[in-house]
Amino acid sequence: KPVGFFERKWKIFASAAGALVLALLATAATVFYVSQNGKELEVLGATATPTLSPTFDPRSTLEIVQERGHVLCGMLAETIGLGEGFHIELCRSVAAVVLGNPDSFVSVLVTPSNRWQHLLDRKVDLLVSGDTHTMEREIREKSTGSGFTFSTPYTYDGMIFTGNQTLVRCAEENKLYGECASLKICVTRSTTHHKFLEAAFPPDYFTVASSFKERADMMFNGTCNA
Questions:
Q1: How many CB atoms lie within 10 A of CB 123?
Q2: What is the pLDDT at residue 57?
Q3: Ramachandran quadrant class, 164 (left: phi over 0; alpha: psi -120 to 50; beta: rest)
Q4: Distance CA 119, CA 111 (A)
Q5: Which of 55, 134, 139, 209 has the most CB within a 10 Å radius?
Q6: Nearest residue to 92 (alpha-carbon basis) of 82, 107, 81, 78
Q7: If DSSP states are collapsed to H, E and C, what string results for 86-122?
Q8: What are 146-180's pLDDT values in tens digits?
Q9: What is the pLDDT of residue 59?
Q10: CA–CA distance from 103 to each of 70, 73, 77 (Å)?
Q11: Cα–Cα distances in angstroms (integers) from residue 177 to residues 69, 173, 186, 201, in the given order
């Protein structure tokens, strides 16, 4: 039996028809509405004209700093307010090495809560605020989901409690009953101290401050006793 033209070419026609259907579906789906939890959400497809290119600068931080002409040092308010001290001198040292001028730096205010996001977004070139080097922050810092490179540690310390002598002993021994029932510890948010207290104490026994100054004020006004 002779084979007709369409019978010989059916695979080609089937493929072409399938491609046409997919193209029509894609066109129809560029703008559509879907229902989710009783609400209608508008989902937009491709724009008619190209969008702006991404703003991420692929250059290294060193290249950016050398072209800019000054180092952006992320510092806490207490350091900036003093205008001098170890962290200021540390930033001056970086500027001297990178740019040949120790005064070629700008102090940028950061807080314990936003410092890592500022560093990730390149709003600062480095943090000089006594940030603790931990394995978690090097691999995947909690608030940003990114890892950061640390310098060689320049100070080594531990954590101690200060305040009312009796209640300090309560905190050190993690004793929360009897004379220790009134223990209230002040801690700064998004610090390693904060993380430790979250793991070691019930939330009723510590209060979180947004800055070191606020933490000190809370100690002096009686909000905390350790």
A1: 14
A2: 75
A3: beta
A4: 12
A5: 209
A6: 107
A7: HHHHHHHHHHHHHHCCCCCEEEEECCCCCHHHHHHCC
A8: 999 888 888 887 788 888 889 899 998 988 899 98
A9: 85
A10: 8, 12, 19
A11: 58, 11, 19, 13
